[in-house]
Design goal:
33% helix; six-stranded antiparallel beta sheet; alpha+beta; 2 domains; Pdz3 Domain; single chain; 344 residues; globular; six-stranded mixed beta sheet
Length: 344
């Protein structure tokens, strides 16, 4: 009986570190974030019953086929030690110090808001880059309407301003020059074009602003290519700017005849500016893995990411190097014709 009690006691003592280690694995969090392959979305397709890239009536939209998939990186925070070890051992995830993803001088909400703002700007840049490639003419375009402000209810984001007090304006310099000749309290008559609507005229009483001594209209404008129809991007909960290239390609494909991708499954990534320049992104190897697993055979890689992309060795995935929207379109046309596009 004594021997049995000793064996039980020995077993219990031996289990103490095992139980303690189990508690450690399940309860203790680590200062790391896991990065891995995220979902991909076909920019030519639908999500939740809506076109990912929706071009309103008025745009001459043509049928498309194949895929132009944007790719993402998944991100997991607040990992326990056990979760971190499991993800790391899977070989699909990368653990990075949390401070690299969430700098300690910013809250998580602030970082998420910044990522959402980057994504919204990437949508605007993608639209402008595509319309510029398609040779839509430039106009003085309303980027934002300050609320409160003199133009609320008079002008809308996306309006093209063609005249101020009967004088035509085609550039921001001309527009600003006419505003600088006004003073607070003046009324200005603005001729404008609105997407999906008839042209109109708005009369605005100018306000005051501390940064100027002339009349305050309360809008931010930019020189941008303008089309009479709206383009909406219907993806929620996607942050960052790296979808820009694929959004632009989808707009180009829908507004031109023929299939840009020749019916193939193309995926890719890359930021884009309003002039069509493609920029580098993070997590390229994770995005390549998610693209290959989704069925892609061609992956568009920003030129500055090529060296890193070549380290992934994703069999069956052709890596096509791109540095501008125009070059990306040319590369896809070359592939469709059976030629050899620029490779990483």
């Amino acid at each position: 009986m004594v021997a049995v009690n000793r064996r039980i006691l020995t077993l219990l003592v031996a289990m103490v570190p095992i139980v303690a280690f189990g508690v450690l694995l399940s309860l203790v969090t680590v200062p790391y974030v896991s990065l891995g392959p995220g979902p991909t979305f076909d920019t030519l397709g639908e999500v939740d019953g809506k076109q990912v890239v929706d071009i309103a009536a008025g745009g001459d939209v043509h049928p498309t086929s194949g895929h132009l998939n944007m790719t993402t990186v998944s991100q997991r925070d607040d990992l326990t030690l056990g979760q971190a070890l499991t993800l790391w051992m899977s070989g699909r995830e990368q653990l990075v110090p949390r401070d690299l993803v969430y700098p300690p001088d910013k809250s998580k909400d602030e970082i998420d808001q910044a990522n959402n703002s980057d994504f919204k700007r990437s949508e605007d840049s993608a639209e402008y880059a595509a319309l510029s490639f398609l040779k839509y003419p430039s106009a003085v375009t309303v980027a934002t309407v300050n609320d409160p402000g003199p133009s609320v209810g008079k002008l809308q984001r996306g309006d093209a301003i063609d005249g101020v007090n009967g004088k035509p304006v085609a550039t921001i310099d001309q527009f600003t020059s006419l505003l600088k000749a006004t003073k607070p309290g003046d009324k200005v008559v603005l001729d404008y074009r609105r997407k999906n609507s008839p042209a109109g005229v708005a009369t605005v009483t100018l306000g005051t602003n501390a940064d100027r001594d002339y009349g305050y209209l309360g809008v931010a404008v930019l020189d941008a290519p303008w089309a009479p129809f709206s383009i909406d991007f219907n993806l929620a909960n996607i942050g960052g700017p790296s979808a820009g290239l694929m959004f632009s390609l989808a707009v180009v494909d829908k507004l031109t005849t023929g299939d840009l991708n020749d019916g193939k499954f193309v995926a890719g990534t890359g930021t884009i500016d309003s002039e069509g320049k493609v920029g580098s992104i993070g997590g390229i190897t994770h995005k390549m893995l998610s693209a290959r697993e989704a069925g892609a055979t061609i992956f568009l890689v920003p030129a500055d990411n090529c060296d890193e992309a070549k380290t992934a060795h994703e069999d069956g995935l052709q890596l096509v190097k791109v540095d501008t929207l125009s070059h990306a379109v040319d590369a896809l046309h070359t592939l469709s014709a059976g030629g050899e596009p620029p490779r990483c």
